[in-house]
Design a protein that fits this description.
about 300 residues, alpha/beta, Conserved hypothetical protein from pyrococcus furiosus pfu- 392566-001, ParB domain, 4 domains, five-stranded mixed beta sheet, elongated, ParB/Sulfiredoxin_sf, ParB_N
Amino acid sequence: MTETPENQNTDQLRNIALAPAQIEVGDRLRRAKSSRVEALAADMQVQGQLQPILVVESEKPGKFLLIDGGQRLAALLVCKAAFVDAVVLPSTHGPELRKYAEIMANVNRQELTKLERAEYLCELRDVWQKMNPTAKHGGDRRSAQVRAVKELRSEAENKSPILGLSAQVAEEVGLSRSAFFRAIEIANGLFPKTKDRIRDTWIADHQAGLQALAKVAADVQERACDALLSDPPQATSVADALLLAEGRALPRNDDKHYHRVTATWSRLSTKSRRAFIDEHKREILEHARAQGWSL
């Protein structure tokens, strides 16, 4: 039986099915992003609305004001949903409590770390292929040829391997083909013991560090973690930790600055190089005379 406002206690939370026209969006701190809406809509086409939106009764009869779930609502509109699952806040919630609920719904949302996202994307790819066998195996020879052409086009466009999202949308929501490749590299390259050691540290949210660790052997990963997680740490970056793990010395600060300037020099324009030389002209001339360079 569908619940309606008329037969419910207005001082308690309640679930209700609303027609989209009954929901007023109003002014919101967080606007719906088109790329996120498109990805959500594609997912809802597969499994429907899993999480209700949060609303409160409006002063207008039969209308409800949206508190949380703007992107879900926008995705349901894209899907042309006849009804929207919603949780209704008690009518005793005044303007301040409503705004508080909207803010806390977003503040309390904890994002995945880079490590967690890599693990989820790796699992997602496997599950999607099991749900859609033709996405991996295909049928007859003709369909295989067609699929090969589509895969080549998809790779060229960096199109998402799931949900059929466009390249631009897939990139914006983190579901592009390159995102899956990076995820698989991290999830499969890091050994279980390494994942356990770094899961609750800053390393779990450092993409470049995770990729670097994933490329080395298990024993090197372990020694690198020893260097990073010792008290005090022997290394403050994954790059330095890997140097120690491989038995090499850490570069001095002067060496780091030298390599940084040298690497940047090749990317400078002719105008910028000349400006740099003019800025350091006296030192350059003194060095040239000391070296006996002919000018």
